């Protein structure tokens, strides 16, 4: 079974990435991931990501603020995951966990220090390799 989800690397003006720890009542509990979620019927990946970031974190990015970055195709035991990853450097609101998760801001070169969900590992490696630590962004 193919599962299509979308994820986002939110980048703050200090160049840190927002990571989310999965709650104890979900698969891969305690592991870290890029925020995002399932693409609902009739949604584009960008629409799904905007909805998910609001539901999970109370953030309101505009769809044109998403920059396609990479994707992962990962085989889990009971499904195959296809997940595009977008970068986002601009949004309204302050990230606050709304679904029982823990969040933290991490520099790109420290992402792999986290215990990541398996599908996010190659994406974290790519971010580490392509986005230098300390690269600052105006917000």
Summarize the model shown:
The chain is α+β, with helices and mostly antiparallel strands and 139 residues long. The protein has helices at 45-57, 121-130; strands at 2-10, 17-21, 32-33, 36-38, 66-75, 80-88, 102-106. The longest helix has 13 residues, at 45-57.
Can you tell me about this structure?
It is globular and about 40 Å long. The longest helix is centred in the middle third of the chain and has 13 residues, at 45-57. The model has no long low-confidence stretch (mean pLDDT 92). By secondary structure, the protein is an alpha+beta fold. The protein has helices at residues 45-57, 121-130, and strands at residues 2-10, 17-21, 32-33, 36-38, 66-75, 80-88, 102-106. The strands form two sheets. Strands 4-1-6-5 form a four-stranded mixed beta sheet, sandwiched between helices. It has a three-stranded antiparallel beta sheet with strand order 3-2-7, with no helix packed on it.
Primary descriptors:
139 residues; alpha+beta; four-stranded mixed beta sheet; 2 helices; 17% helix
Give the arrangement of secondary structure elements.
Blueprint: E1 2-10, E2 17-21, E3 32-33, E4 36-38, H1 45-57, E5 66-75, E6 80-88, E7 102-106, H2 121-130
Parallel strand pairs: 1-6
Antiparallel strand pairs: 1-4, 2-3, 2-7, 5-6
């Amino acid at each position: 079974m193919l599962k299509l989800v979308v994820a986002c690397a939110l980048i703050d003006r200090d160049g840190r990435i927002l990571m989310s720890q999965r709650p104890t009542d979900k698969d891969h509990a305690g592991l870290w991931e890029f925020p995002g979620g399932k693409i609902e019927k009739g949604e584009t990946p960008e629409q799904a990501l905007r909805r998910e970031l609001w539901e999970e974190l109370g953030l309101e990015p505009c769809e044109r603020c998403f920059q396609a970055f990479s994707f992962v195709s990962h085989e889990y035991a009971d499904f195959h995951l296809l997940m595009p990853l977008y970068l986002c450097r601009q949004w309204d609101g302050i990230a606050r966990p709304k679904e029982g998760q823990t969040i933290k801001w991490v520099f790109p070169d420290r992402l792999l220090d986290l215990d990541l969900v398996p599908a996010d590992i190659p994406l974290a490696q790519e971010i580490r390799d392509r986005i230098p630590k300390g690269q600052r962004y105006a917000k």
